[in-house]
Write a structure and sequence with these properties.
336 residues, alpha/beta, ten-stranded parallel beta sheet, 11 helices, 37% helix
Length: 336
C-alpha cells in the first residue's frame, strides 16, 4: 500500500482588523464572503475570548402598549396604516406588567424588556413607563425598554427609574433604510442612541435581515453598529417575520445560512456584545439555531410571544439547550 498524502487547503484570508480603528463596509463585506467553515471558525475564536460558549442569556420581551403606531415601517404589524389584525391597546397597568415579569423570572429569564408602539413617547408616557421600570427592577431583573425615539431628558428619567438597557434598532443600512420606512430618517435613530448613551444607559441595537437587502446592505448595517463609540452592549439580529397586510408580507425568505453568516459577522465585529437571536427564531428550526450559537449568538428572547409574533415556547427552548449541552448564562434565584 502506498501512503496517501492529504493536502489541507486553507481558506482565503479576510482583512485583519486593527484594534481601535473603524470597520469599513468593504472589510465587513469581505467577512461575509468567507467560506462558511472559515467564517464560523473565526467567530468561534472571538466568542471564546470573551464568553463561555455554552452559556446563553435568556431575555423576555413584553408588549406593554400594542398597535396604533404612526410610523410606516414595512415589516411592522403594529403600524396603524397597515391592516394586519393587530388592535391598538393602551399602556398596560403596573400589576399586569409585574405579573408577566414574575412569570418570566420563574421561567428563567434574567432580563425583562418592555416594548411600546410609539413614534416618540410624550412626557406623561415616560413617567408611566418609569413606574413600570421601577417595579420590574424591584423584582431583581435587568430592565430594558423600547419606546421609539426619545427627546432630551427622557433617557435620564428612565435611567433614574432603574433602566439598564434601551432598545432602538437601526434596522438596516443607511442607503436601504428609505426603502423600508419613510416616516423618519436614519439620523433620527442615531440621535436617540446618542441620547441614551449620553445618559449612561446601555444600548441594545441591531437590525432585521431578509427584507430584500443585499449582502452589501447587511455589511452596512453591521458597520453602523460596530462603529458606534462604544458599540452596543446587546445586538439583536432579527429574521424578518412576514406578516399579512404589511408591505413585506410576500418577501422571499433569506437563506438560513446567510442569517448564520450575519450572526458570525456581528460577533467578530462586536466581540464583547451579547448577540441575540430575536424575531423569526420560530421559523429557523433547531439546526439553524444551533449553528447560530456556534457562530457566536449568546442571547435569546425567551417566551411565548415576541411583541405580536410567535416565539418558541419555553419548554422547547430548555429542551434545545439540554440537547446542545448548553445552559442559561445566569441562573435566577431558586434555579439550579
Amino acid at each position: 500500500m502506498t501512503e496517501q498524502t492529504i493536502t489541507l487547503h486553507r481558506a482565503p484570508k479576510a482583512p485583519v482588523h486593527p484594534k481601535n480603528e473603524r470597520w469599513s463596509v468593504d472589510a465587513i463585506e469581505a467577512l461575509f464572503q468567507l467560506p462558511f467553515p472559515e467564517l464560523l471558525y473565526r467567530a468561534q475564536i472571538v466568542h471564546r475570548e470573551h464568553f463561555d460558549p455554552t452559556k446563553v442569556e435568556f431575555a423576555t420581551l413584553l408588549s406593554v402598549k400594542t398597535g396604533g403606531c404612526p410610523e410606516n415601517c414595512g415589516y411592522c404589524p403594529q403600524a396603524a396604516e397597515f391592516d394586519t389584525g393587530v388592535k391598538a391597546s393602551k399602556l398596560m397597568e403596573l400589576e399586569e406588567v409585574l405579573f408577566a415579569a414574575k412569570r418570566a423570572k420563574e421561567a428563567g429569564a434574567t432580563r425583562f424588556c418592555m416594548g411600546a408602539a410609539w413614534r416618540a413617547p410624550k412626557d406623561r408616557d415616560i413617567e408611566k413607563v418609569a413606574e413600570l421600570v421601577r417595579g420590574v427592577k424591584g423584582l431583581g431583573m435587568e430592565t430594558c425598554a423600547t419606546l421609539g425615539m426619545l427627546e432630551d431628558g427622557h433617557a435620564e428619567q428612565l435611567r433614574d427609574a432603574g433602566l439598564d438597557f434601551y432598545n432602538h434598532n437601526l434596522d438596516t443600512a443607511p442607503e436601504f433604510y428609505g426603502d423600508i420606512v419613510s416616516t423618519r430618517d436614519y439620523q433620527d435613530r442615531l440621535d436617540t442612541l446618542a441620547r441614551v448613551r449620553g445618559a449612561g444607559v446601555k444600548i441594545c441595537s441591531g437590525g432585521i435581515v431578509g427584507m430584500g437587502e443585499t449582502v452589501r446592505h447587511r455589511a452596512g448595517l453591521i458597520a453602523e453598529l460596530a462603529n458606534l463609540d462604544p458599540y452596543p452592549e446587546s445586538v439583536p439580529i432579527n429574521n424578518l417575520v412576514r406578516v399579512e397586510g404589511t408591505p413585506l408580507a410576500n418577501q422571499a425568505p433569506i437563506d438560513p445560512f446567510d442569517f448564520v453568516r450575519t450572526i458570525a459577522v456581528a460577533r467578530i465585529t462586536m466581540p464583547k456584545a451579547r448577540v441575540r437571536l430575536s424575531a423569526g427564531r420560530q421559523q429557523m428550526g433547531d439546526g439553524i439555531q444551533a449553528l447560530c450559537f456556534l457562530a457566536g449568538a449568546n442571547s435569546i428572547f425567551y417566551g411565548d410571544k415576541l411583541l405580536t409574533t410567535g416565539n418558541p415556547d419555553t419548554e422547547a427552548d430548555m429542551q434545545l439547550m439540554q440537547r446542545l449541552g448548553m445552559s442559561p448564562a445566569q441562573q435566577p434565584p431558586g434555579k439550579t
